[in-house]
Specification:
flat; mainly alpha; 7 helices; about 200 residues; about 60% helix
């Protein structure tokens, strides 16, 4: 009996509460620290602050490549039908403004007080440019009041193949109509229009 109380049994009975207390203490400390914010930086074994690797700057070739991509994107955007139609309309609107000032219809506009033509002149210019494009064969019949934002030119669309019975004259006319929107033809028409305008 004495051996049972004084021996291993007693040691076990005492050790279990002590281990339980120690375990509870560790759990309590763990709970206390669980809400703490992580350190803002870490230190290595030597005590030095850990540095994150910096990004490698782009090479000169990479910079040239990105610059070229941006340039191509801007050129593509400027070549869209809607952008060109709008640019020509703004240019025409300024001509209308100047003409109205020259003939006394409107007072002079101060460049410092206006950075684009009045809206009524822009609307009128839209109609003028639309009529010009239709007369030159540039306008696509599928467009409504204006070219769509990301629409394409007529010559960029697949050419519709019709039956072999189509008359050659009709085929040639469709080909001319499709080719009218190509940059070369537009350039020739534009130069011709400017020449006629300069002659009065």
């Amino acid at each position: 009996m004495n051996d049972t109380i004084r021996g291993d049994g007693l040691t076990t009975v005492i050790a279990e509460p002590v281990e339980l207390a120690n375990s509870s203490g560790r759990r309590g400390r763990a709970r206390d620290h669980s809400g703490d914010s992580p350190p803002s930086y870490r230190r290595g074994p030597s005590g030095d602050t850990t540095q994150f690797p910096s990004l490698t700057p782009p090479t000169e070739e990479e910079r040239r490549y990105k610059k070229r991509l941006l340039q191509l994107h801007l050129e593509y955007h400027a070549a869209l039908p809607r952008e060109q139609w709008y640019a020509e309309s703004i240019e025409e609107a300024w001509r209308i403004v100047q003409a109205s000032v020259d003939d006394g219809t409107d007072p002079p506009y101060l460049p410092s007080s206006i950075n684009k033509p009045p809206q009524d002149k822009i609307e009128l210019a839209f109609d003028v440019i639309t009529r010009q494009w239709k007369a030159r064969g540039i306008w696509d019949d599928e467009w409504e009041d204006a070219p769509p934002g990301l629409g394409c030119w007529k010559h960029e669309k697949p050419f519709e193949i019709k039956p072999a019975s189509e008359p050659e004259e009709h085929l040639a006319m469709r080909m001319r109509d499709r080719e009218a929107s190509r940059p070369l033809h537009q350039f020739i028409d534009h130069v011709s229009a400017e020449r006629d305008r300069s002659r009065g």
